[in-house]
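Lab notebook: predicted structure, single chain.

Context: the supervisor wants predicted structures on file for every construct in the current expression panel, including those that have not yet been purified. This is the next one on the list. No modifications to the sequence; it matches the entry in the shared construct table.
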Amino acid sequence: MSDSDALTIQGFQRLIRERYYATDSARGTAGTFMWFIEEVGELATALQVHARAKPSSEADRQNLAEEFSDVFAWLCTLANISGVDLAQACRKYTESGRVQGVKD
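Prediction complete. Output recorded below exactly as produced.
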């Protein structure tokens, strides 16, 4: 994939909205947040497996990538049903220099 073909945050959030908004908004924020947290848990497990495997297998790396993708998709879902533009929200990291409250 070339840089010009790269999917943007805004593009991915729009894709998630187009595919899932009706179902996601009907489920509501609380139910959607629970799905998001479940995916975060699956990512935590995948990170543990990846960290313990020396060297990690291709299957472990693929699973890790899939879990990151799932977490990002559910984050986009939460943003969509909450009316938050993630690309706009991320500007706090790109436009103001050092972000207040960042953990070192």
